[in-house]
Design brief:
It is a single chain. With 424 residues, this protein is an alpha+beta fold. The protein has 14 helices and 7 strands. The chain has a domain of 158 residues: Aminopeptidase (3-Layer(aba) Sandwich). The protein has a 7-stranded mixed β-sheet with strand order 1-2-3-4-5-7-6, sandwiched between helices.
């Protein structure tokens, strides 16, 4: 609301108040007979007075000529002729000054004609005036012109507000004429490049998040068999996330080293339908796990197979695992005959820390329950794997530390832990 509009509304309210006062004064002045406390004039008396020439001349001299408003259907006043007398609206049966008495008719006398029905009289003028007076009290006495004027003021105020807003937006959007120097142009170029790079990074992140959500919605679990075995082996060979001893041995075999013992365990896992992997919506393998069912004679047979392993890297890793299992033998400690062993789990680098390993572990547990095995264990090295198994209520049976020398002065320490869990 602008100041101009407020002033116009105030002026309009003042005008309406003055207009209503003026109408009321005119009404009181012209129609005194209708005000409370006055005597209402009957129509018969009015007409009788109008026929007397004395009263007529007296009324013409004293009273002003009555004029009626639009509300009443009245004809224009005709020119009066004093010699011509108009008929009264109602025929006066009795003489003036006498009362009309109804007498019972005699039987012998002639039948008297029935009185004619009275004609439909027009409504009394005073009642019409009182009705219109009540209507004027109830309804506001504002003409259509004033209402139209009020609407025009509103529209003009809205238009002015819209024009002011447009001018304000145009003034903001228009570039100001600033003298650019070399330093300012360099700063502007740097800022523009930084903003563009930031926008690009945000867009790429959004695209990656959308792709991940779509892939995550359409995850598929598959068991490893003869048809999809090449894809599974290719994924294990290309991934470099496995730090478990058996995973490293299996990877060396895929890269060209020959070890019949490792290949035998891999063949047994695939043939029994214990290995599994996860595909995303696009069909890419993003996680895999190799599992076997171990029995007590498997640990005893590993000691014999170590003598026949010729490849030094495989022999070194498998010796650590064998030493670890002999010292923490779950068959002797828990007095069990067989258990479900998770040999290794691999997750694609793009899907690290995105609950893919959690889903693989849940899939392995369901497979163990399906085979009616009540004991599950895994030998893991990485810290992420330690956190994963501890978060899923796995207990640690033992820990073995071993070292790997990448060079003469560079040695890395690893902690091989055995985690287990029992089902009811």
């Amino acid at each position: 609301m602008t100041k101009r509009f407020v002033i116009q509304v105030q002026n309009l309210n003042k005008f309406l108040k003055n207009f209503n006062l003026w109408v009321k004064q005119q009404w009181d002045f012209k129609h005194k007979a209708l005000m409370p406390g006055r005597k209402y004039i009957r129509r018969a008396e009015k007409e009788s007075k109008s026929h007397n020439p004395v009263n007529e001349s007296h009324d013409q001299s004293e009273k002003p000529k009555r004029t009626y408003s639009k509300h009443f259907n009245t004809k224009h006043a005709e020119a009066r002729d004093e010699n011509v007398k108009k008929k009264p609206l109602i025929p006066n049966i009795n003489e003036s000054g006498t009362r009309s008495m109804k007498t019972a008719p005699d039987r012998n006398s002639e039948p008297i004609d029935k009185p004619k029905p009275e004609p439909n009289r027009k409504p009394n003028v005073t009642s019409e005036w009182t009705k219109s007076y009540d209507e004027m009290i109830k309804k506001p006495s504002v003409s259509e012109i004033i209402a139209k004027y009020y609407d025009i003021i509103k529209k003009s105020a809205k238009n002015t507000e819209m024009l002011e807003r447009r001018r304000h937006t145009m003034s903001i959007s228009e570039p100001k004429n600033v003298e650019l120097t070399e330093n300012t142009t360099r700063q502007i170029a740097q800022v523009s490049r930084e903003t563009l790079n930031a926008i690009k990074t945000v867009k790429t992140r959004m695209i990656e998040e959308d792709e991940y959500r779509d892939d995550y919605k359409g995850l598929r679990y598959e068991l490893v068999h003869n048809k999809n075995l090449p894809e599974f082996l290719e994924f294990v060979q290309s991934s470099d996330c496995s730090e478990e001893p058996f995973g490293r041995c299996f990877k060396h075999c895929l890269n060209g080293a020959s070890c019949g013992f490792v290949e035998y365990h891999a063949y047994r896992s695939v043939s029994e339908g214990l290995s599994t992997f996860i595909r995303n919506k696009r069909g890419k393998i993003i996680g895999a796990a190799m599992n076997t069912i171990m029995k007590p004679h498997d640990i005893e047979g590993e000691a014999i197979s170590l003598r026949n392993i010729k490849y030094n890297q495989i022999k070194k890793h498998y010796a650590v695992l064998h030493h670890h299992l002999i010292n923490r033998n779950p068959f002797n400690t828990f007095n069990i005959k067989k258990l479900f062993d998770i040999r290794f789990m691999l997750v694609d680098r793009e899907y690290n820390f995105k609950t893919i390993a959690q889903k693989l572990l849940e899939a392995c547990e369901t497979m163990a329950k399906g085979r009616q095995l009540k004991f599950i264990k895994s030998d893991v090295v990485s810290e992420n794997a330690h956190r994963l198994f501890e978060a899923n209520n796995y207990k640690m049976l033992g820990e073995t530390t071993f070292y790997e020398s990448h060079s003469a002065n560079n040695k890395s320490e690893y902690k091989l832990r055995l985690y287990y869990k029992t089902f009811k």
